[in-house]
Write a structure and sequence with these properties.
It is a single chain. This protein is of the alpha+beta class. Helix content is about 15%, strand content about 35%. The chain contains five helices and 14 strands. The chain has helices at about 15-20, 45-50, 55, 115, 195-200, and strands at about 1-5, 5, 25-30, 35-40, 60-65, 65-80, 85-90, 100-110, 120-125, 130-135, 145, 155, 170, 180-185. Strands 1-5-6-7-3-4-2 form a seven-stranded mixed β-sheet. Strands 11-8-10-13 form a four-stranded mixed β-sheet, with no helix packed on it. A three-stranded antiparallel β-sheet has the order 9-14-12. It is elongated. It starts with a strand and ends in a 15-residue tail after the last helix.
Length: about 220
């Protein structure tokens, strides 16, 4: 994703307040061997960009004075009750340095699983994002998780998820293989029976009764 920023000459609380009145959001870009750079961005464009998942989890192209630089969104400060972005932080990206990022999980296929389709269960998403380490070129926008194999009484663990090439997961806590999706039985839900025509088709054909002998006159 691409966004436009402008170098900010004036800093301080008063300058930032006046900047917000004009519809701009103050920010900073840091990282690498370069001095941190104070910037400002259009508030409305930033507000709409923040609603997109990719803006939070992928490398962004920040354009200043016609030159583009790869950066990552690192922090956003919001007003406690107004729809207002107070400040935004970006980090410069070095192509040779591994990134530590949170990447969202995209779940699919649960409606086709035996647990949901037949056994009256639902898929409970215990973890919705993962901490990963990877080079910038390997950073995925999201990680796909296939739930089509879910069965009643069995959970999906981290080790069962296939990671994209070059991506490793950062584990927090003592559990090295945490539950990502648990299968929860819905109270009062009955297992789905096969349609009657399928059941009838599966039954062997009943033998026809033998014909009765004709009555003697």
């Amino acid at each position: 994703m691409k966004f436009t920023a402008f170098e900010r000459s004036k800093q301080g609380t008063g300058a930032s307040r006046r900047l917000r009145i004009t519809g701009r959001t103050p920010g900073i870009v840091y990282g690498g061997a370069v001095t941190p750079l104070a910037i400002e961005v259009d508030h409305n464009a930033l507000w709409h960009a923040l609603k997109k998942e990719a803006f939070h989890s992928s490398i962004l192209n920040m354009e200043i004075d016609g030159k583009a630089s790869p950066v990552l969104l690192r922090d956003v400060q919001m007003h406690p009750f107004k729809q207002l972005v107070l400040h935004v932080d970006f980090q410069r990206v070095d192509a040779t340095t591994r990134l530590h990022m949170k990447v969202p999980l995209h779940f699919f296929g649960d409606e086709n699983s035996q647990a949901v389709k037949v056994e009256g269960c639902i898929a409970n998403h215990v973890i919705s994002e993962l901490d990963v380490l990877c080079l910038p070129s390997d950073l995925p926008e999201f990680i796909k998780v296939d739930l089509s194999g879910l069965r009643k009484g069995a959970s999906l663990h981290l080790a069962q998820i296939e990671m994209p090439k070059g991506v490793s997961v950062v584990i927090h806590g003592g559990d090295k293989n945490p539950v990502v999706v648990s299968v929860v039985a819905v109270a009062g839900a009955e297992p789905v029976a096969a349609p009657a025509d399928e059941v009838d088709a599966a039954k062997p054909a009943a033998a026809k009764p033998a014909a009765k002998p004709a009555a003697k006159k």
